[in-house]
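Sharing in case it's useful to others searching the archive later.

Someone asked me privately for the predicted structure of Thymidylate synthase, so I'm posting the question and my answer publicly. Question first, with the sequence:
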Amino acid sequence: MKQYLELVNDILKNGEKREDRTNTGTISKFGIQSRYDLRDGFPLITTKKVFFKGIVHEILWFIKGDTNIKYLIDNGVNIWNEWPFEIFKKSKDYNNESLTEFIEKIRKDNNFAKKHGDLGPVYGKQWRNFNGVDQFAKLINDIKTNPFSRRLIISAWNPAEIETMALPPCHSLFQFYVSKDGYLDLQLYQRSGDIFLGIPFNIASYSLLLTLVALECSLKPRYFIHTIGDGHIYLNHLDQINIQLSRTPMPLSKLIVDFNNKSIYDIKFEDIKIENYQSHPSIKGKVAV
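And my answer, the predicted structure tokens:
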């Protein structure tokens, strides 16, 4: 994953220090792009261990159109918990619960989860119901019936609903491209990218999405092109980033999907596996909310 390390070095060398919404501070560069060829292997970062289980469940959650964290929590994925918790703390129901206690309430109490676990109309809602349009179903149909269209696009950025989202979409728009020789490419425009915590996750997430859509449409996954608006390294992640830079990348893993007699809407977590994933140990970092 030399592309990722090159991205990190570029931001450290050419970025600028900026204040940010979270009051953490960043080193930021605007307008950066990386390209990953899935024929070389699945682009799961090897300079630290990445939570592949969370990547799979989140993509399946998006495809379902779900926006409540209960599905994720029930499956041991806690990547979205902080945002609804911050909203809950401002509600009249808040009684000094810790984040851990909040998660347990989501897990055990369906009524509580329904009221306080929803993130608003975030990704899944926009993919499956953008002002009444099922963008995802339309995309799949268009790739199959009009593969050379230049309109194979899904947008998660819905200005009419931004203010009611717990977090406006960072990965805000993506577009597919079908080659004449049967390959499928995907370009993501990400308005904002946390280089240490978020970007390794996003690279693998959209590479998985590319693979699933390719299988559904009888195509071969090829390039994931990742375009980032504000790519930033939080100042409290600099030590972690430097540890990664000191590590030698390992060979890429292989993605295996059991797609026999299934559609993209039927795929379950158990159908998706990663083989030969070698990585350096995980590195913890605090998420900026």
